[in-house]
Amino acid sequence: AVGLVKREITRVVSAGTVTDDAILDPRESNYVAAIVADTERSGASGLSPDVRDAWADLSTGRFWAAVFPRARLADQLARIRPVECLVSEDESPIGASGGESWMVTRRPPWAFGLDAARNRLTQHFQTASLDGFGFQDADRAAIRAAGALLEYLQETQKAPLHHLDRLLPYRQGLALELDESTRRSLEITRTIRDGSREGSLLAVLDRTTTPMGSRMLADWLSNPLTDLAAIASRQDAVGELTGDLAFRSSLRDALRNVYDLERLVARVMTGRASPRDLSFVGRTLASLPEVKSQLGRRASPLLREYDELLDLCPELSAELSRALVDDCPLSPRDGGVIRTGYHAELDQLRELAAGGKQWIASYQAQEMQRTGIPNLKVGFNKVFGYFIEITNAHKEKVPINYTRKQTLTGAERYVTPELKEYEDKVLDADERSRDLEYQLFLQLRDRVATHARPLQRTANVLAMLDTLGSLAELAAKQGYCRPKLVSDRMLEILDGRHPVLDIMQPAGAFVPNDTSAGPERGLLLLITGPNMAGKSTYIRQVALLTLMAQIGSFVPARQAVIGVADRIFARVGASDELSRGQSTFMVEMTETARILNTATPRSLVILDEIGRGTSTYDGVSLAWAIVEHLHDRIGCRTLFATHYHELTDLAQSLPELRNLNVAVKEWDDNVVFLHKIGRAHV
What we know:
alpha/beta; 18% strand; elongated
């Protein structure tokens, strides 16, 4: 800058507002959420207030809002997995405590005001109201949280947020519900022991080739479908990819040339894209014709739909290819970004600068010959510009037209009018070419920004294609079958295998098992057997296969018929919450009570060793009462693993209960676990 430098904050970086690839995990979304209690809807009714929640991923432009019952907030946060939560300074954290895995940011109460939030959102989206986004009267309470979140992003980013171009209402009931305990017990995205991704169901299923696909797969696992037609549509696509090796391989090879278009567009829209980012956008667009060619004439309606939605943006692709050099630098200020031949004036300035430098070399040779000074040297530095350096040994040979510029210990530096004239031309050409190149870069970035909507749509299509390809690759390599999804309350699985252990163990080491449950086969399966015999693995396996089936994946089994579940509940393993003053037994009873109070006949419930945290007689009584309640009051599919053999007597009084046990064998004075589940003969 010339004169005073303006000092100001250009961006505030927090856990939820990071957009830099060097910091973000490319396989995971980076959500920031805003939470506020809806006190207006509580009060006279005596009900707990609902919670308004909005969440956004600044790095991709996804933006949702919803209203949840307060009791389900923890479940929703476990699904979203935000890295940062915004709460009002005058409200309790509502479950968003500092002891969780996210950071809590306190915001002033006015940021959550309804009128201010509505005005902020309508101004951002340039709409008269938010009705066009699908928000109904009951949903508008979520606008407070969405407005507060948008205000926070605008305050911290200090840049346009045009890639946040829509606010989507999240509708409960359209996806299979999984509570916090179930997600932890089933190790869907994180393991229980160390909270790592490796060893989870997500890590096993993830055969994607792009970061977008990896994030999409995680989103599918967090939001399994309940609509039979939508599930069948995904299955058709996975089936076609599984059965056609050439198609699957070609598509996945084409996707390997695709960069993280979602996050690239986000950086373009916030004005933080580098020349290299633009080159990655160009390379991605250049690879799209190959991806599109793989989708032509496909049988699957979903693949044909993706073929239509895939926008090649040919004009933008051609311009980026014509404008940018093959290996773009990170900084746009130093030049070397624009390809020769793209802009005539820039080419002229470059030629002038290069020609001036060549003249300097010839001028040095000319002066050496004219003066007879063999070690005469023409040099340059940023302080003095171009100069002629002559050692003191040849001082007497200096021509009269040389003007002294600088004295060194063993030499003198001079300048001539001719050298100064060419110096001005060269430096001016260099500076003008860099300035022009920067302006051309900004124009290209703005041009990409005008294509943000089709680019985001294309990125979404690429992510879904990659996810489908990943599921197909796994199904083909591991010999998975296509499950039949039905609306009835049934489970009919032949030779089912645990999806994680089946891959992590040596080939053929895992023992497959059948599962049969339904109104005519018994809805409640009571599994007994010794510890470490495989009861917990078996019931987890059934829940994971149901979950996989409802994201549209094939499953590790010889054959499977699975009734669509509205919720999956899992209470497996023992843990305490000492920071909240809850013992192992208290946690167990609290989670079990939630299951008994919220499960429906369409739910799938798996319970392991309920009642073990207390005395034997109390534990048996509790387990006995829970089994009766599940059987008589709820009537959902239940797998109940227990070491209380006394519960097997319930088969005599509960018609929908079936006893199973784990086979063991005595061999050479040792007990061998066969890990095989069969009907118990009681």
